[in-house]
Specification:
The structure holds 2 protein chains of 2 kinds. By secondary structure, chain A is of the alpha/beta class. Chain A folds into 2 domains: 5-314, ABC transporter type 1, transmembrane domain (ABC transporter transmembrane region fold), CATH 1.20.1560.10; 336-572, P-loop containing nucleotide triphosphate hydrolases (Rossmann fold). Chain A has helices at 5-10, 15-47, 57-108, 113-125, 128-155, 157-166, 169-204, 206-211, 215-267, 273-314, 376-383, 406-410, 427-432, 440-449, 453-458, 476-490, 506-520, 555-561, 564-572; strands spanning 336-343, 353-360, 365-369, 391-396, 399-400, 413-416, 494-498, 524-528, 540-545, 548-553. In chain A, helix 5 (128-155) runs antiparallel to helix 10. The longest helix of chain A is centred in the middle third of the chain and has 53 residues, at 215-267. Chain A is elongated. Chain B folds into 2 domains: 3-312, ABC transporter type 1, transmembrane domain (ABC transporter transmembrane region fold, Up-down Bundle); 332-539, 3-Layer(aba) Sandwich (Rossmann fold). Helices cover 63% and strands 9% of the residues of chain B. Chain B is built from 16 helices and 9 strands. Chain B has helices at residues 3-14, 18-50, 56-102, 115-157, 159-207, 209-214, 218-268, 274-284, 291-312, 372-379, 402-408, 423-428, 436-445, 449-454, 472-486, 502-515; strands spanning 332-340, 347-356, 361-365, 387-392, 395-396, 409-412, 490-494, 520-525, 536-539. Chain B has a 5-stranded parallel sheet, sandwiched between helices. In chain B, helix 5 (159-207) packs across helix 9 (291-312). Classes of the chains: A alpha/beta, B alpha/beta. At the A-B interface, helix 2, helix 3, helix 4, helix 7 and helix 8 of A face helix 2, helix 3, helix 4, helix 5 and helix 6 of B.
């Protein structure tokens, strides 16, 4: 049986409670010995010593008393284990989520969010059986049989020998099978996660599938994946059942062996009924902790695989290096300098940015243009601190950005992204995200600035309308406007604007442009735009191509250069 | 939907497997029967031996002990294999059934369903339903069998003892579980609901992380997740505590019943039967102790079943025509078309008239929200119009089956969905049997050839979730390539090039138009494309 050692470390902060659970579990085992002894006395006295009901009254009182005590002890033990488990589940889930925040959105686009969420929810949940049952039972499996063995020895050495000889076979057998099942269990967990991710993907793409008349074909795929899951799970289970079979066989065969052996010796007068019956009653209890452990094995194999995934995520190093000594953020205005910055995505041959050298002077409106794939988004991701340069560094007022707390830096930024994410809540809350303390008036004002007023009038509950997952109720243009409203509300000194107006129609765009001009006043702006007429007023235009700045200057200057910018403008007009 | 109706529904899902289920239940009965027999025979053997009879009188018992010592393990193994096999086949049926029910509802009825919530429903609820058979139906039936066996055994000894035993079995097998279940029912429902909410919030947190970080809300969102998790843990604690108490009480009842039965038995029974009675009673509880969790599982199974059934139980209108119409031409005509998404929603289209002859390259312009995308939803019959008529090739749209229509129309929506698969697989969706050459052609048309050549794995590059490893522009190109590969007579580009720069956009459109010569293109956009290449330009207004 392989138990991930890292799981034991999780017990650290709650070890006292854990030992309480195990200790009470042991007392529970001792109480069972007492119960077996009392039962034996009752039957022995009546059967062989011709005692009457009144003679054994006291023993009956003992029997019920011990059973009652056992109820309390068992309750305490399991309650303690429950508390241990709750603590660990909470701690792991919280650490995992905050670690994902550390990893950052760009790193996470490589992972399936369905799979991540499954690990956070079901993966952590599957550790329940681990801490509530398996690990306490691991200890009880050693302690309780030892106690019973110790009681049996003075009664009958031969039976004790049978017990002690068969006992080590069980864990040995389980260990052998367990090692093999561990790998299969991991596959099962992966296949379950894959199943979840696939389902999410299919459900989200159902419209696309229908457009291509392929949605019926998915039924087969789902059937096939479910079958794969069944095969994988049955493999695990067959192994688990086999180990259960081995355990059962050993247990029942030992009981049978002991029964026959003591029965025969009883027959020839070499043993008393009292001892023989006690041993018969206690023998199943000797194996019970081992069998309990075997039964929890099933739960554990899923838990073990989940644990691997959880620790794998926890041990992935975050996108940004930890800042040991944070330097306070300098006051705006910001002078930002890219010094020989390169960035290369994993698995891509060419770097997205190559030795980028540039200066963004304070308060300026800077536009970045260039063909798709030129590295514009990467540059923004670096500025937003979702990525750290592979080489080179970014300086803010002479201070390396890498030494400033990302939270402090981001508090100075407003961001209108290419594809804003809308949360599964009301329109109001989606805008409020930018400034949780904002009053209703402020939010309405921001919405007006972004041209949302008309939309709000159409929505059934106005500002309070839930807008569905990823803003399913809103069109792309409307989502853009929500993002704009957030930027208005945040009111930060540096505005980063990524193709913000691509989805807006001409009429509305004019309105928004006016408001945007107002917003941009007195702020530094870095924007990426395809719509070249929106950037004519920019103080400086950077033309990016293949990860490098190839041209820089004002609109008029660049136009006269007759190079890439000129070409872009000509095609556009 | 009442519990009882859901329960009947769930039982109906089991009927195809009734033979295997009966076999598994019978094996389960024999398994527990074996261990009762093992303990009973052993106890009798020892009690008898204490009276020092001849060895011949013990022989049968010795054989019995050995036999039951072996049979139990084997029977248990067989029982588990059988029952789990049934469960998983049942699970597969459930998944496929659910998808089949859901598929016709998309996208019209699903606009308010969160796919994260759906995910929880399908994966988790269906997993929960496996417990319905494994932990509810089968153990209950086994328990009934064991009760009968115990009554025969104890009844043969003494009627009063048998009645007392029956009382105990009813208390520990029925009353205790029902009390525990009913008292935990509400909490169980709350826990399921909280878990579903946590799932949605986690999904939002993971997918919307960029926004959370930029707006400095990561910490407060984290706190929100923390609170929700605490809520979940609190509800689960209540449930777990209840089941801990219940299993403790169950164990207590085992010893209490042994005490009571002996108390009643001592004056009434042949004394040699006291030991077997005690040990058989102890062994029979194996069939009753798990019933507590069975009833809790029944509750969550019914909840899970109810949610699945409510989701797919929406009535569906418009039976599809069976006859396969093939139009002689692909002229599209809108005549006085009116449409609104729901009775309470505003009208999106009012008295719309529009004619798009075959081979036209038409641009439909207009501000966002004016209903341009709605035209397309009507054209592919995701929704049906309420007034007027749309015709294709002279036939009303309603005369075509949605499948037939979708074969004729290739649509690139504003936010195309790329599947988490390779570029090749995403393209092949349009035409599973496309040749390598066809793929190369469409890739070239949309200008992806350079990118694909630069990727180490070429067309077999994985695009990631929602195509996230590609840029927005690349995703749109893939979507257009996919639509081109479909080779349909009508191509709809719904804001399909918004993420491309002006140069790329123009080049792309030029090539696509060349390729679509003689076939229809409907180009939906909010602003006029540069150059006078479109045959017709229509400006839509509210």
């Amino acid at each position: 049986m392989k138990v991930d050692r890292r799981l034991f470390f999780e017990l650290g902060p709650v070890r006292l409670l854990f030992f309480l659970a195990v200790g009470l579990g042991l007392i529970n085992g001792l109480l069972v010995i007492g119960l077996a002894y009392t039962l034996t006395q009752i039957i022995n006295n009546v059967f062989l010593k011709d005692a009457t009901l009144t003679d054994v009254q006291g023993l009956f009182a003992w029997l019920i008393g011990l059973a009652g005590l056992r109820l309390i002890v068992q309750w305490g033990s399991e309650l303690a284990a429950l508390h241990v488990t709750e603590h660990i589940k909470t701690s792991l889930r919280e650490r995992l989520f905050s670690h994902l925040l550390q990893l950052g959105p760009v790193a996470l686009t490589q992972e399936h969010s369905g799979e991540l969420v499954n690990t956070l929810l079901e993966g952590v949940e599957s550790l329940d059986g681990y801490f509530r049952q398996l690990i306490p039972q691991l200890f009880l499996m050693l302690l309780v049989p030892l106690a019973i063995f110790w009681v049996v020895v003075p009664q009958d050495v031969l039976s004790a020998l049978i017990l002690i000889c068969t006992a080590p076979l069980l864990p040995l057998f389980m260990m052998l099978i367990g090692r093999w099942a561990g790998a299969v269990g991991q596959r099962q967990f992966k296949s379950l996660s894959y199943l979840s991710a696939h389902f999410l993907d299919v459900l989200q793409g159902l419209t696309t599938l229908k457009l291509f008349n392929r949605s019926q074909a998915q039924i087969k795929t789902i059937g096939r994946l479910s079958d794969d899951f069944r095969v994988a799970t049955m493999q695990v289970l067959r192994v688990a059942f086999l180990s259960a079979l081995a355990l059962e066989l050993l247990t029942t065969l030992s009981i049978a062996m002991i029964a026959v052996e003591i029965g025969l010796r009883l027959l020839y007068g070499k043993m008393a009924f009292e001892q023989a019956f006690f041993i018969l009653v206690i023998t199943p209890e000797f194996y019970q902790p081992l069998r309990n452990f075997g039964a929890s094995f099933h739960a554990a194999s899923a838990g073990n695989a989940a644990a691997q995934r959880i620790f794998e995520l926890l041990e992935t190093s975050p996108a940004l290096a930890t800042i040991t000594e944070a330097i306070p953020l300098p006051n705006p205005p910001f002078h930002i300098e890219f010094r020989a910055v390169s960035y290369q995505y994993l698995g891509r041959e060419r770097p997205a940015l190559h030795n980028l050298q540039l200066e963004l002077r304070p308060g300026q409106h800077i536009a970045i243009v260039g063909p798709s794939g030129a590295g514009k988004s990467t540059m923004i991701n670096l500025l937003l601190r979702f990525l750290e340069p592979t080489t080179g560094q970014i300086l803010v007022n002479g201070i390396p950005l890498a030494t400033i707390m990302p939270e402090a830096w981001r508090s100075q930024l407003a961001w209108v992204s290419q594809k804003p994410y809308l949360f599964n809540t009301t329109l109001l809350e989606n805008i409020r995200l930018a400034k949780p303390t904002a009053s209703l008036d402020e939010i309405v004002w921001a919405g007006e600035q972004a041209g949302l007023t008309e939309l709000v009038a159409q929505l059934p509950n106005g500002w309070q309308t839930p807008i569905g997952e990823r803003g399913a109720r809103l069109s792309g243009g409307q989502a853009q406007r929500v993002a704009l409203a957030r930027a208005f509300l945040k009111d930060a000194p540096l505005l980063i604007w990524d193709e913000a107006t691509t989805h807006l129609d001409s009429n509305l765009e004019t309105q928004i442009q006016t408001a945007m001009q107002r917003l941009m006043q007195g702020r530094a702006v870095v924007m990426i735009a395809h719509r070249l007429h929106t950037i004519r007023q920019a103080d400086q235009i950077l033309v990016l191509s293949e990860g490098q700045v190839i041209e820089m200057g004002t609109h008029d200057f660049l136009l006269n250069q007759h190079r890439l910018y000129h070409q872009l403008v000509m095609t556009y007009d | 939907m009442t519990d009882w109706r859901v329960f009947k529904h769930l039982v109906r899902l089991l009927t195809p497997f009734r033979r295997s289920i009966l076999a598994a239940v019978f094996l389960g009965f024999l398994t527990i029967g074996s261990s009762m027999a093992l303990m009973g025979t052993s106890a009798w053997l020892i009690a008898k031996a204490a009276l020092h009879p001849s060895i011949a009188e013990l022989n049968l018992a010795i054989v019995g002990v050995r036999f039951f010592g072996i049979s139990r393990g084997l029977l248990r193994y067989l029982e588990r294999l059988t029952s789990h096999h049934v469960t998983f086949r049942l699970l597969k049926n459930l998944r496929v059934w659910f998808y089949q029910q859901l598929e016709p509802l998309a996208p019209a009825r699903l606009i308010n369903q969160h796919s994260g919530d759906l995910l929880t429903r399908v994966v988790h609820d269906i997993d929960t339903l496996q417990n319905f058979y494994l932990r509810v139906v089968a153990p209950s039936l086994v328990a009934v069998g064991i009760t009968i066996a115990m009554l025969i055994f104890a009844g043969g000894l003494d009627l009063i003892v048998a009645l007392a035993l029956l009382l105990f079995l009813i208390v520990s097998g029925v009353i205790l579980p029902i009390v525990a279940w009913q008292s935990g029912k509400k909490q169980g429902q709350t826990a399921v609901q909280i878990r579903a909410n946590l799932n949605i919030e986690l999904l939002d947190g993971v997918q919307g992380m960029a926004e959370l970080l930029i707006f400095g809300q990561a910490q407060s969102y984290f706190a929100k997740i923390q609170t929700r998790n605490q809520d979940l843990i609190r509800q689960q604690h209540g449930l777990a505590h209840r089941s801990i108490l219940q299993s403790g009480l169950g164990n207590f009842l085992v010893w209490l019943s042994i005490g009571v039965l002996l108390w009643l038995g001592i004056p009434r029974l042949d004394e040699i039967m006291l030991a077997p009675l005690a040990l058989v009673t102890m062994a029979c509880y194996e069939a009753f102790l798990p019933l507590g969790s069975a009833f809790q599982n029944l509750g969550s199974s019914i909840e899970a079943g109810r949610r699945l059934m409510m989701l797919v139980e929406s009535d569906l209108s418009s039976p599809d025509p069976a006859s396969a119409l093939s139009p002689s031409n692909f002229d599209i005509t809108f005549k006085h078309v009116g449409f609104q998404y729901g009775p309470d929603e505003p009208a999106v289209l009012r008295d719309l008239n529009l004619s798009i002859p075959q081979g036209t390259h038409i641009a439909i312009l207009g501000p966002s929200g004016v209903g341009k995308s709605t035209l397309i939803n009507l054209l592919v019959r995701f929704w049906d119009y309420q007034a007027g008529e749309i015709q294709l090739g002279g036939h009303a749209l309603h005369d075509y089956s949605p499948e037939a229509l979708r074969d004729l129309i290739a649509v690139v929506p504003q936010n195309p969905h790329l599947f988490n698969a390779t570029i090749r697989e995403n393209l092949l969706l349009a035409q599973p049997k496309a040749t390598e050459e066809q793929l190369e052609t469409v890739v070239k048309i949309v200008g992806l050839d350079n990118l694909i050549a630069s990727l180490p794995e070429g067309l077999d590059t994985w695009v990631g979730e929602l195509g996230h490893t590609l840029s927005a522009g690349e995703r749109q190109r893939v979507a257009i390539a996919r639509a081109m590969l479909k080779n349909a007579p009508i191509l709809v580009l719904d804001e399909a090039t918004t993420n491309l720069d002006a140069v790329s956009q123009q080049n792309l459109l030029k090539t696509v138009q060349l390729e679509m010569e003689g076939r229809t293109i409907i180009f939906i956009t909010h602003e006029a494309p540069k150059g006078s290449w479109m045959t017709t330009v229509i400006r839509a207004e509210t």
